Amino acid sequence: MDAAAAGAADLMAALNEAVVDFQSYGYDQFLAHQSAVTPRYGGIMPPAAQAHVSVGVSFDLVGGARPDGRREARVSVQVGLRDGMFVVAGEAGVDAPGYSDELWELLRELPEVAVQDLDECVALIRDYTARLCAYTDFLDGIGVPRTSERPGRAS
Predict the structure, then answer these.
(1) What's the CA gap between 120 and 105, in Å, rounded?
(2) pLDDT tens, 12-58?
């Protein structure tokens, strides 16, 4: 395997590890908030002018304020290419009640960092994933009730 192939394999492995970590995180959050969330896992590679990918977990929240009754919360790491550099960012946010899909309230935002070195990119993906998966009170912070709580009961 040449250096480019080895680098590609390292990047794919880091992204796969992030997906696995977010699946575990999402499942733990689901167990704590079963009556109020439905998790969705995976990675997204939307069409764009420059290559990028987002890995993480989204939660459909029960009883949202949108007309369709939905609300979404999301925790993710984004990796892209810009001007010949790897760009890594991370965030946890929720769509603002009663607004369109375009308006997000960011509760945790990890800075966008551009690096040229693949090893630094892989290290950032792992660091940002670990930091976001340690955000265990994310759903609590946006008022999602825990499974053991009954509606109307103070926590």
Answers:
(1) 29
(2) 999 999 999 999 999 999 999 998 888 888 666 666 677 889 999 99
**C-alpha separations of 114 from 39, 71, 80, 142 in Å:** 30, 32, 9, 30
What is the pTM (predicted TM-score) of this model? 0.85
Please tell me what DSSP assigns to residue 53.
E
Interior CA angle at 114 toward 4 and 18, to 5°?
A: 70
Strand-by-strand arrangement of the 37-44 sheet: 37-44, 52-61, 71-82, 85-95, 104-115
User: Residue 92: what are its φ and ψ, rounded to 5°?
Assistant: -135, 125
Residue labelled with tokens 């892209």: 80
Q: Which two tokens stand for residue 124?
A: 């950032």
How far, in Å, CA of 154 to CA of 105, rounded?
24
User: Within its chain, how far is the Cα of 62 from the centroid?
Assistant: 19
142's tokens: 């946006």
